[in-house]
Write a structure and sequence with these properties.
The protein is of the alpha/beta class. The protein folds into two domains: 129 residues, Oxidized Rhodanese, domain 1 (3-Layer(aba) Sandwich), CATH 3.40.250.10; 109 residues, Oxidized Rhodanese, domain 1 (3-Layer(aba) Sandwich), CATH 3.40.250.10. The chain is built from eleven helices and eleven strands. Strands 1-6-5-2-4 form a five-stranded parallel beta sheet. Strand 10, helix 10 and strand 11 form a beta-alpha-beta unit. It starts with 7 loop residues before the first strand and ends in a 17-residue tail after the last helix. It comes from Planktosalinus lacus.
Length: 285
């Protein structure tokens, strides 16, 4: 049996792999300035993906799947092929927000495509640069690969109907990873309405990191999440992106990955669903 690759890689380890012919480093950006930021400076040899255009299939109405719906699995497979990623590739992905902007989402999607060798750079590109990984402004030449033929996402997701039943019956734990003020309904800077799904508990994704901006130790993350079994837990955020940061934390803890509710609050709050404010009895951690 092939050993499971740890979901994180440290900067020093990445530096030691610079000459590995199978290494593929991905800069995962988000927003209109993402590509310009990539061109200004990135880890040498890094290839670029962008959350809105490469990792989502954004609809005209966010009520249909939320602000960042997943693309069709084969559309993503073709994008992965254009990045030159083969089954032998050792993929390392980073973003500019400790993995929470787009890197964890890319990690989840690549795992859900069936790729095994993928890790998120713990601490981000600054850590690698400080450890001695060279930076560049050039766009690397890439030899396209053969696309994966996966016909459906291989990691579990939850639909709006499934989350509705979970909220009504209270038989499944719904974890909301947004900031407490958004969860409590005090403020909502992105979506139309503030609040949370009735019955959801708040476990902000920022709590996955230590004071240095790296993921907490596996034992500490295990204490945070071991009470939540994968088959009775749904994880969501605002649009299905930062939720992947917590799914990554589950993997770091050595726990099975729960279901991702991709539509998240951005879909729920636009579909005339019940909403709650304030804190839940299980509280925040």
């Amino acid at each position: 049996m092939t050993p499971v690759m740890h979901p994180l890689i440290q900067a020093e380890t990445l530096c030691s792999m610079q000459d590995d012919k199978h290494l593929v480093v991905i800069h995962a950006g988000f927003g209109e300035t993402a590509y310009a930021n990539y061109l200004k400076k990135h880890l040498k040899g890094t290839r670029f993906v962008e959350l809105n255009t490469d990792l989502s299939d954004i609809k005209e109405n966010a009520a249909q799947g939320g602000r960042h719906p997943l693309p069709a699995v084969q559309a993503f497979a073709r994008r992965v092929a254009r990045l030159g990623i083969t089954a032998q590739s050792h993929v390392v992905v980073y973003d500019e927000n400790k993995g929470a902007n787009a890197a964890a989402r890319f990690w989840w999607m690549l795992k859900a495509l069936g790729h095994q060798k993928v890790q998120v750079l713990d601490g981000g590109p600054e850590e690698a640069e400080q450890a001695g990984f060279p930076t560049d402004t050039n766009i690397p030449e890439v030899q396209p690969a053969t696309a994966y033929t996966t016909e459906q996402w291989l990691l579990p997701t939850a639909s709006l109907d499934e989350v509705t039943r979970a909220s009504e019956k209270n038989t499944v734990t719904i974890i909301d990873v947004r900031e407490p003020q958004r969860y409590q309904g005090i403020t909502e800077p992105i979506d139309l309405i503030a609040g949370h799904i009735p019955g959801a508990i708040n476990k902000p994704y920022q709590h996955n990191l230590n004071t240095h901006g790296r993921f907490k130790e596996a034992s500490e993350l295990r204490k945070m999440y071991q009470e939540f079994t994968a088959d009775t837990t749904l994880v969501h955020c605002g649009s299905g992106v930062t939720a992947c940061h917590t799914l990554l934390a589950f993997a770091v803890a050595g726990l099975p990955i729960p279901k991702l509710y991709v539509g998240s609050w951005s879909e729920w709050s636009r579909n005339n669903k019940p909403m709650a404010t304030g804190t839940h009895s299980k509280g925040t951690s």
